[in-house]
Design a protein that fits this description.
Length: about 350
């Protein structure tokens, strides 16, 4: 996947132990790639920097949809770009915007069946790179959030968490609790993003903080972290609670691990006794993504929710943006604007 023609783009220069370093990547120059039969030439406008790059650099995970990254490979990831050339009969026109998965480059040649035209539901095309549709679907389809319930979002200051807290509030949650690792992020979560309370892992006693933040227990958990936070959430789950596993930031951001696993010990006896549902996020169909964007677009246009993100300018800034993301420097999504 990462080896498709790309013109100017980012490649892996070396693999470091622990979290990747800015010098592990390099900008490579190249010609605008040629288009083959059944392919679309796209000039990228924005691409997302996301923590799963750490997992791919660590060797990947068997069964995951994306291959591991090795030295010399081109990076890839979610992107929004402008169609320059497309096959006849594809329904794509030059100048139209599409999403695809060959970011980290200025030009991409993508099979026509791997690009999706950008819908008009979101007021900002770059918001196609938000995790709002994922958060919305996890809360509605997978967790079945009901009005008045108490929700915990672990990693509440991340790309998923900043959207999930706001969406839970709009869907009628009675209390929304999030977790993060800094006072500054905690303040923004309560002041800007609809969280009633924030549990800070940097203060220790996560279980005790959670008990104070949600004294009656949890009905829904959107877990993006895993590890000790997931264990505490499961222990605080009320009867018939629903826990949706969305991410594994605890493993991906741990310098002592490879970013490819996130082990945790849970008391399954208590899960059984309280009939707690534990399920992994099942991905998004195109119809589910469109439905989520319709709802999110209405809220964004009305100013009822925000799309928290940091934009960095230019391809050469992307490696530093990745290291900053993995170090927890940013709130929300991180997007490179070309």
């Amino acid at each position: 996947m990462g080896g498709a023609g790309m013109g100017r783009g980012i490649r892996v220069r070396a693999l470091s132990r622990g979290l990747p370093l800015e010098g592990d990547f390099e900008v490579v120059e190249g010609e605008i790639p040629r288009v083959g039969e059944g392919e679309v030439l796209v000039r990228n406008r924005w691409f997302a920097v996301f923590p799963s790059v750490r997992t791919l650099l660590g060797g990947g995970v068997p069964g995951a949809p994306f291959p591991a990254l090795a030295a010399g490979d081109a990076l890839f990831g979610p992107a929004v770009g402008e169609v320059v050339a497309a096959p006849e009969g594809s329904g794509l026109r030059p100048g139209g915007l599409v999403t695809h998965f060959l970011g980290w480059r200025e030009w991409a040649v993508v099979p026509v069946d791997q690009v999706v035209p950008v819908d008009a539901e979101l007021p900002d095309p770059a918001a196609q790179l938000s995790q709002g549709a994922l958060a919305y679907t996890a809360l509605t389809r997978d967790a079945g959030l009901r009005e008045g319930e108490t929700v915990l979002v672990t990693g509440g200051a991340g790309a998923v968490g900043t959207m999930a807290g706001q969406i839970a509030r709009r869907l009628g949650a009675g209390r929304v609790v999030g977790s993060t690792g800094s006072a500054a992020k905690a303040r923004r979560m309560t002041e800007e993003l609809g969280y009633d309370a924030v549990v800070r892992r940097d203060l220790g006693d996560f279980e005790g903080q959670l008990a104070k933040a949600a004294p009656e227990g949890l009905d829904v958990v959107i877990d993006t972290v895993g590890g000790a936070q997931l264990r505490a959430a499961a222990a605080a789950a009320r009867p018939h609670a629903r826990i949706v596993l969305v991410g594994t930031l605890g493993g991906q951001l741990d310098p002592a691990r490879k970013g490819t696993d996130a082990p945790v010990e849970l008391d399954t006896f208590q899960l059984v006794v309280r009939a707690v549902t534990l399920r992994g996020f099942g991905g998004l169909t195109p119809a589910e993504r469109r439905a989520a964007h319709t709802r999110l677009g209405t809220w964004l246009a009305a100013g009822e929710i925000l799309f928290p993100h940091t934009r960095v300018a230019g391809l050469p800034a992307a490696p530093r943006a990745l290291t900053e993301l993995l170090s927890g420097d940013h709130l929300g999504a991180v997007i490179v604007e070309l």
